[in-house]
Every structure is written in structure tokens, then in C-alpha cells.
Amino acid sequence: MSVGLTVPARPQANITVPEVLDQAREAEEAGAASIWFSQLPSGHDALALAALAGQVTSRVEIGTSVVPIYPRHPLTLAAAARTASEASAGRFTLGIGLGAKNFLEPVYGTPYPPPVRHLREYLTVLRALFAGEQVDFTGSTVEVHLSEPAPAAPVPVLVAAMGPQALRATGELADGTLPYLASPRAISNLIVPGIGPGKRVIAAVPAVVTSDVDAVRELAVQQLGFYGSIPSYQRILKEGGVESAAELVLIGDEETVAAGVRRYFDAGATDVLLTQTALHTDEDRRRTWRLTGELNSSGS
User: Fold this and answer.
1) Which helix (H) or strand (E) holds 157?
2) What's phi and psi for 12, nearest 5 deg?
3) Upstream peptide bond of 193 is cis (omega within 30 degrees of 0)
4) How far, in Å, CA of 237 to CA of 209, rounded?
5) Separation of alpha carbons 242 and 160, rounded Å
6) Cα–Cα dist 230/103, whole Å
7) Which uninterrupted H or E stretch holds 96?
8) pLDDT digits (tens, 9 = 90+) for 223-257
9) Better-scored residue on pLDDT, 281 or 181
10) How far is 17 from 132, CA to CA, in rounded Å?
11) Is residue 272 classed as helix, strand or coil in its secondary structure?
């Protein structure tokens, strides 16, 4: 059993980099197996935070969950990932995603490429870059001409893949997947068979240990409701047998949340990543983080 945490535990707009690093240290001390940084268009840079976290921690796996590949060029992303890997003494894992066209295209103002084709080409180039190969690649969405390759860098690559075509590409070209809001049923029926054997399946799951279940449920409805407007999440929620993202939040005491986490492992997840742990209060977050360490220590 490997249970990790997203950092920071509250929106990036309300937290400073020193505070993020304090939380990274706290998560490691609490017993998290891994810590993960998300990327927002107007937030902190997730890869920079990962590199900095590598300098203030010593044990945990450090990853991004996730960095959208649109509109980044793979050379730029690979350089940042290499930096984070070296800064964390090889503890870094690169989590990437396609992002949502209706959300990102208006923000960046550049055409959104055909997603699965772009993912395949992007992963092909990343694999070659991390293998230390000379890259001379011309695709329909990605073009790279590198005369001198950088040294090989053993950076594992995960993709937030949830659709059948994206899962197939991920299974062929990456090390695993990071699905968010995929229920145990969706993990078992779609994600695990879709990606194929021998790959990591890290289920990102909203979870809050709390004594105020009703208040947290209300906040979850408010804060996660927009996922219902994104086609990829509409599909994964339907596959999971739920109507809204808030239904998937694990809310309750330690025993209730721990039982919910175990259902993901029973469904075939290799790891679970707890998110939204500060949905209500800092005390709820601390209780959730302590539970994370207890689950990792007990192995069950």
C-alpha cells in the first residue's frame, strides 16, 4: 500500500512558496509515501515547486499531478523535469495530462491540438529525451530537432489518462496513469484493463477526515461541481456509476476514510493519492495526513 498527498493542501492563490515547502516537510514527517504538485495556469510552477521540495525532503517520492502538456514544448518540459529529478536525488516522477480544451484553449489563446495524437507524439519525444537519445522528430503536432542530446535521466512518466485511446497510448509509451475522480468501479472496469499489465495506477481521490461531514459535503459540492461540465470527467463519472464528483469524496472519521481508500487498492490501484485534504479546516487536514502515515505504516 502506498498513499500520497497533494501539496499544497489549499488553493495556490492563498499560499506562499515557503508555506508550500513547510507543508512538503510536514507531509513527509506525517508518513506520506509521496507528495504531488498540481499545475494551474495562474498558480505556482509545479515543476519548480517539486525541485525545491526535493531540497527540503529526504525520503518521499515527489511528483506532478499534473502538468498539462498543452501548450508546453517537450524540450522545455523535459529540462524542468530533469532539474526536479536531480534536485530530489532521483525521487521525482513526472505526471502530465492533456488538459481540457474548453478550459485551457481560451486561457492560452492558441489552437488545441488533436489530443491523442499529440499525446503519442509528446510521449515519444519525452522517452527519447530521457533516454539520452539524439532527437530528430517531425510529427503533426510536435517537432524537435536536437543536435546534441542531454545525458540520460531516469524520469518516470505518468499520464492522467482516462479515455480508452489515451490509456492505450499511455500503456505503450509511459510508466502509468494518474486518474482523478475515477471511482473504484471505473478503476477496475476501465483504467486497469485499459492501460495493460505492469503499469502504475495512481488513483487521485478527494478525502477529508472530519467530524463535520455535512459541512464538508456541502463544500465538496461547491468546489468540485465544475468537473461535471468537462467532457472527459463526465465520461469517467458515468463509468464510475456516480452523477457528481462530490459523491466520490471520502468524508468521515479515520475508519470511514481508511475503508474508502482500501476499496481503490482492491479495485487494482497500485497507489492512492489523497487530494482536497484541507477542504474544510486545517485540523481536518492534519487528521487526514496522520491517517495517511498510519495507512503506509500498517500496509493495510
Assistant:
1) strand 157-159
2) -60, -30
3) no
4) 23
5) 20
6) 8
7) strand 92-97
8) 999 899 888 899 999 999 999 999 999 999 999 99
9) 181
10) 32
11) strand
Q: What's the pTM?
A: 0.95
- Residue 298: C-alpha distances to residues 123, 197, 206, 256 (Å): 36, 26, 21, 16
Q: What is the Cα–Cα distance from 94 to 78, expressed in whole angstroms?
A: 9
- In terms of residues, how long is the chain? 300
CA distance 107 to 188: 34
Separation in Å, CA 10 to CA 127, 184, 193, 241: 33, 25, 33, 28
* Beta strands 3-6; 200-209: pairing state: unpaired
CA 190 to chain centre: 18
* SS3 state of residue 236: helix
Give the CA radius of gyration of the chain.
18
Q: How confident is the model at residue 109 (pLDDT cuts 50, 70, 90)?
A: confident
Angle, CA of 102, 108 and 111, to the nearest 5°: 65
The residues pairing with 176 across neighbouring beta strands, listed in sequence order, are 158, 200
Decide if 206 contacts 273 (C-beta within 8 A).
no
What residue type is assigned to position 181 of the chain?
Answer: L
Look-up of cell digits 510508466: 175
Domain 3-298: state its class.
alpha beta
At 126, is the secondary structure helix, strand, or coil? helix
CA pair distance 256, 55, nearest whole angstrom: 35
Question: Contacts from 219-222 at CB under 8 Å and sequence distance 24+?
Answer: 219/279, 219/280, 220/245, 220/246, 220/249, 220/251, 220/276, 220/279, 221/246
In the chain, domain spans: 3-298
Taking the C-alpha atoms of residue 50 and residue 110, their distance in angstroms, rounded to an integer, is: 27
Tell me the torsion sign for CA atoms 260, 261, 264, 266. negative
| Cα 90 from Cα 241, distance rounded (Å) | 38
206, 275 Cβ separation under 8 angstroms: yes
